[in-house]
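User: Some background: our group keeps a shared notebook of sequences we're curious about, and every so often someone picks one and asks for a predicted structure to add to the entry. Today it's my turn. The entry only has the sequence so far, pasted here. Could you supply the structure so I can complete it?
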Amino acid sequence: MDSKPSRDEQIRRAPLPVKIVIAGGFGVGKTTAVEQISDTPVLTTEAPITEVAAAIDRTGQVPDKTTTTVALDFGTVAIDDEVKLYLFGTPGQDRFGFMWQDLTEGALGALVIVDTRRLDDCYPAVDYFERAGLPFLVALNLFDGQLTHSLEDVRWALALNEDTPMVTFDARDRVSVRDTLVALLHRSFAVASATP
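Assistant: Of course. Here's the predicted structure to add to the notebook entry:
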């Protein structure tokens, strides 16, 4: 008797592909989060920051940042045997905003990463996903383990409704990124199942 699974069994066992967008302002930890969680080598379009770009992107608040994403970051992670995430990290600069529509097409949800020291930088991402009607979760990245504003204050500053989940996480920690993505999946599946 042949113990090799049939083609139908192999197809049934293939994990559900789920597209997730990771967005936020310049230097908030998008690339870092994708690199920490991806099971496969990350496709990244990091380029050195030029003097002109440094002036436009206001790099003074993140002086150690020497590169920036100019197109996208891409990685994958198997959540379990049934779900595989395809992660698309957006560029954080406003001048690359034209790419967001293509990057979000077909996505189940979005993770908006926020640096609470620079709340202004996340407004475009929050506004974009609210207008697009794409379920999203706001993740406050703990730079140096610090949260400079409370969750309630950030919710108020971003004018988020109570249905929008907020969490704190560390983009440098694989487990923290995983838990945040699982929370986003729960939110996205709940919204999808509630939609007629």
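Suggested note for the entry: Helices lie at 7-13, 30-37, 51-56, 100-104, 123-132, 151-158, 174-194. The first strand starts at residue 16 and ends at 24.
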